Amino acid sequence: FDATMANGTDLLALQNLVRRDPQGYLEEFRQQYQHFKSALEVFRLKPSDRDAKPFSKLIRFLAHVAPCYKKEGEASDFAPRLLELMEHQYEVLGKDLRSIIAQALIQLCNRDMVSRFELLPIFFKLFRCKDKALRSVIYSHVVNDVVRLNRKAKDQKMNKKLQSFFLSMLKGSHAMGVKKSLDVIIDLWSRKIWNDSRTVNAVADMCFSPIAKVKATACRFFLGLFDYKDEDNYSKKPEASVQLKDLYCQNASITHVKRRKKRLRKMERTKKKIEKMSREEEGNQLSSLAAIDLLYDPQSFSERLFSQLKKSTDPFELRLLMMNVISRLIGAHRLIILNFYPFLQKYLHAGQTSVTRILAYLAQASHSLVPPEDLEPVIRSLADNFVSDRSSPEVMAVGLNAIREIAGRCPLAMSSDLLQDLVQYKTSKAKGVMMAARSLISTFRMVDPSKLHRKDRGKNASMNPNKQREYGQEHDEDDEKLKEMMTTTTVKKAGDGAPSETPDHQEEPAKKQFTRVRFLTAKDFHKLKVMREQTSAGRKRRRSHEEKDDVQPGSSNDVEEPDNSEEEDDDDEEEMVIEGGHGHIRNQMLPLNVEEGAEITEDAIIGYVPRKKMTKEERRECAKEGREGVQKKWAMRNPTGTTNREKLKNKPFLLAKHSSKIRKKKNLSYKEQQQKTSAHIKGLKKLAKKRLRSMRG
User: Fold this and answer.
1) Helix, strand, or coil (residue 9)
2) Distance (Å, whole) CA 272 – CA 270
3) How far apart are alpha carbons 349 and 385 in whole angstroms?
4) Mind listing the pLDDT tens digit for each residue in 269-305?
5) What is the pTM of this model?
6) pLDDT digit string (tens) for 357-372?
7) Fewer Cβ atoms within 10 A, N terminus or C terminus of the chain?
8) Bridge partners (DSSP) listed for residue 585
């Protein structure tokens, strides 16, 4: 048995011959198959590593060649023998042999020599093995097999059978098998193959699994975090724009190098991959919202999950995921779970771990149907624990931003006395506190200006001071316009009294959308600053012209001066909302995202973060990075240096004529000159052919 299979090169040569002429080498195939049967019986009795290597070579040979004799039925029992071996002795087999048998079974399944319904139970048993490479091979085969089935058209009958199998595997007792089955279902959901309500509700049941990893994966599914292949934790990747910038910096100097086109092709492939990843991330957010919408009974699901959360002893990170899912469901479906707010209230103190995330979840769970008397103690608790003179400016800013987000969704929960107390922080010397208080003012100008003091209402709100949102009322068209103004911040042109043109989509009735908040960047603030300076300069010029007109003889004193107080109020109001500054800004502008069900980020709660004073070591590191940054900027402006040939062109001839190359050229014989010319012509022809091939290809 060892002598016949010891030489692997002979089997490779025989494999090549058999695939070329199957009928001519039928006897050799039968001989090798008989060797396999006898070797299998010996191996079952005494599995050893010494016999595993030749045995694995024989299995690989038969897996490649057996499909050639599919019609004759010569190796019809080859796949069942391998399946039986893997089912009963997969724990005893060596790591390499087990991997080779799994690959052979995958190959036979792809050639329709074994049914996928016979193979899948064995593969899910193999998920129990402590072999990460084998698990990844099996996982990729299972997913790609279903994708291949649905490539041209969806096979509903086959999909139903496969779906039933995977859903039955979710009820298994082994943690790894359940986890991998859930990963397959989520992967196929993200590829838009199994995107029906049955899949979503099966994943929803896994939120109540006793296995912590399975529960965390199911919760991440409803939040749109589809990085389920990472078994330890969700790791955030850098943004696509950052990756593209790094890619261009790495490939900036490939102009004068060999294999330039190959590198350019590689760069284009990487660029397409990054763009595809960014599109997938955007699609994940949309599909998470679709998953929440496809739940059969979101109210009962949220109540069950909340009751589990109250009794849970899971790690705090997992409990935070459960809080996030419940709050997203409450916001998206406008559910009423009144016990959820007192439950979160016990976490509302400055020393709590991940308190900004909890505050974001609390704001997500607020909507217009929540009774104001249930949210009023929460807002009061926030004001007492965060917004007080004994708290640090950062804590106060976080508290004010959280109150703004909650009160913007349920303004009836805020009392006018408390609001007027909080508004007094608009003159605070701490910039984060000042910006948070001013954003609170701008929020109540939009939702309920009657609760503000008269001087804080602004022009637009003063025109309609009795505007108040009733219980259960959604935001109206005026709120949409003000929100659009806050996010895009249209500024008047310099010298023109007419307001800027409003876009067409503001005239249409507002449609409910789930959108993310757009935060202004440092460039936007610079542009706004320039525009404000231009408008103030234009105003001064108009005033100076008017004064000159008044001084001129013949001018009537009865003409009233144009009143610019309203215009100044507008500018002050705008500055109150927009005012930015230098320093590290996590959230340059603090607009209200009043879309119920929309995700509220942690940055919206943290707000403005001032830059801390650096230590001596940090300043030294910053100086080093600055020097490197200057070098990078210079390299980006001049991505390539000059070649030696280019340098020679600029070299004065009086210096170049004494070089050895030019002196040798002068002393060349006629024959050497001819050889050099012919070689040059050959090179040109070769280059022309290469260019022609590339154009055709």
Assistant:
1) helix
2) 5
3) 6
4) 877 777 777 766 666 555 556 788 889 999 999 999 9
5) 0.66
6) 999 999 999 998 999 9
7) C
8) 608
